[in-house]
Amino acid sequence: MTQPTLSGSCLCGAVQYEVNGDPQWFYHCHCWRCRKASGTGHASNLFVTSGSLKWVRGEELIKSYKIPEAKRFTNCFCRVCGGRVPRYVKETEMIVIPAGSIDSDLAFKPQFRIFWDSRVSWSCGGDDLPVHSEYPT
Fold first, then answer.
1. Residue 91, exposed/middle/buried by CB under 10 A (0-12, 13-18, 19+)?
2. pTM value?
3. Is a pLDDT exceeding 50 seen at residue 1?
4. Hey, which residues does 5 pair with through a beta bridge?
5. 130 lies in some domain
6. CA nearest 127: which of 35, 27, 31?
7. Whole domain around residue 97: which residue ranges?
8. Based on the structure, what is the number of domains in the chain?
9. Labelling 137: which of 27, 57, 99, 112 has CA 20 to 30 A away?
10. 10-55: per-residue pLDDT in tens?
11. 3-state secondary structure string, the chain?
């Protein structure tokens, strides 16, 4: 994967961002935390390394919620509309981008599904993506 510039925004457009970096992973996560944060059967996240996250506008509107017992899970969102936005994870030095927030054309495709054993019965699937019980090794 090459180093693209991805642009995106929240649901109402008040928060806009640009991310540069090396896409490493793109997956659908079926864990309970991602389901609750996204309100769907899974969350689709793109992980970028060696990159930068620039807030084009609305940085002051970003709120975050970290689950106290979670090692790294934090949900960042626009306080106006609740739309999820990217976050920088200091421990892994990665930028996590909720794929649905990306406005630019995304040439990358999801690579796998994680926490597959945690999925709910009505969640989508049926594609050819590899599945993992937890994080892939």
1. exposed
2. 0.88
3. no
4. 20
5. no
6. 27
7. 5-118
8. 1
9. 99
10. 999 999 999 999 899 999 999 888 898 998 889 999 999 988 999 9
11. CCCCEEEEECCCCCCEEEEEEEEEEEEEECCHHHHHHHCCCCEEEEEEEEEEEEEEECHHHEEEEECCCCCCCEEEEECCCCCECCEEECCCCEEEEEHHHECCCCCCCCCEEECHHHCCCCCCCCCCCCECCCCCC
- List the structure tokens of 41: 């059967």
Mean pLDDT, the chain, whole residue set = 89
In a domain, 137, yes or no: no
Residue 109 is part of a domain; what is its CATH number?
2.170.150.70
Assigned domain for 71 exists: yes
Q: Is residue 49, in this structure, part of any structural domain at all?
A: yes
